[in-house]
């Protein structure tokens, strides 16, 4: 049973560019959340997708956007990259309504470096 | 606003000994969940244990137990019989019924030595 799959694992981009990160949720899960983890910090919630709609959003600018596809997979897009966007981006999946009780399954993340 | 505080940046423990990782939280929500995750150097967040705010008993999962003291707003993780493979970052996190997202602390780096 495959867990959460994220691609790519590592990425280097130049300031001002745009990037797309991808996530395939665990089999049977229908909700995808994205987190940003800066070096030495805990993960910060970016947004959550369910039924192809953004359901919740954290304190991130509009440069961060996302999408969820009918097969529940998701993309995170970041425009106009800043040096401060360098971080590990984690995707977490859950079954709607159960995440609060049973937690989430996380992927191994995409490490984004902006130079 | 919800907040998780982990005051121990790093902890050392000898193999086979027990260790306690501290976590305090702040919330005004009447119903919430508390989680501990392990993050090895690979980056993946591995779910360890969950405690619901209305649970009467402290949660246990194998060598992991959660010392839940609601009045003190603390949710410490106890790892018994530490193993070398337990060396990793450990994060305490919280969610509430009002919001299906996790609020994380800053983590504690645990190092287990032989």
Textual characterization of the structure:
The complex is a heterodimer of chains A (115) and B (114). Chain A is mainly beta. In chain A, 3% of the residues lie in helices and 50% in strands. Chain A has one helix at residues 99-102, and strands spanning 5-7, 10-13, 19-24, 31-37, 44-50, 53-57, 64-68, 74-78, 87-94, 105-106, 110-114. Chain A starts with a strand and ends with a strand. The model of chain A has no long low-confidence stretch (mean pLDDT 93). With 114 residues, chain B is mainly β. Chain B is built from no helices and twelve strands. Chain B has strands at residues 3-5, 10-14, 19-21, 24-26, 32-39, 46-52, 60-61, 64-69, 74-79, 88-96, 99-104, 108-113. In chain B, a hairpin with a 2-residue loop joins strand 7 (60-61) and strand 8 (64-69). Chain B is globular and about 45 Å long. The interface between A and B is medium-sized, with 30 and 26 residues.
SS strand fraction of chain A: over 45%
Principal-axis shape of chain B: globular
Note the total helix count of chain A.
Answer: 1
Envelope shape of chain A: globular
Mean pLDDT of chain B: 94
Structural class of chain A: mainly beta
Number of strands of chain B: 12
Low-confidence stretches of chain B: none
Largest interface: A-B, 30 and 26 residues
How much β-strand is present in the residues of chain B?
Answer: over 45%
Helicity range of chain A: under 10%
Q: Tell me, rounded to a whole number, the average pLDDT of chain A.
A: 93
């Amino acid at each position: 049973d495959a867990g959460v799959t994220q691609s790519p694992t590592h990425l280097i981009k130049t300031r001002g560019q745009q990037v797309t990160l991808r996530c395939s949720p665990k089999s049977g899960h229908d909700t995808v959340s994205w987190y940003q983890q800066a070096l030495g910090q805990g993960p910060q919630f970016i947004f959550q997708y369910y039924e192809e709609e953004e359901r919740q959003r954290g304190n991130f600018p509009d440069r961060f956007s996302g999408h969820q596809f009918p097969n529940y997979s998701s993309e995170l897009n970041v425009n106009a990259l800043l040096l401060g966007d360098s971080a590990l981006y984690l995707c977490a999946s859950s079954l709607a309504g159960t995440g609060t009780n049973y937690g989430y399954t996380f992927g191994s993340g995409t490490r984004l470096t902006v130079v | 606003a919800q907040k998780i505080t982990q005051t121990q940046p790093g902890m050392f423990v000898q193999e086979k000994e027990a260790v306690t990782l501290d976590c305090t939280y702040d919330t005004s929500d009447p119903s919430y969940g508390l989680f501990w995750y392990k993050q090895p150097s690979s980056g993946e967040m591995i779910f360890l244990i969950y405690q619901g705010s209305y649970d009467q008993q402290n949660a246990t999962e194998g060598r992991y137990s959660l010392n839940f003291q609601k009045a003190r707003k603390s949710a410490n993780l106890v790892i018994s019989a530490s193993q070398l493979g337990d060396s990793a970052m450990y994060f305490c996190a919280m969610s509430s019924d009002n919001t299906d997202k996790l609020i994380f602390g800053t983590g504690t780096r645990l190092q287990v030595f032989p």
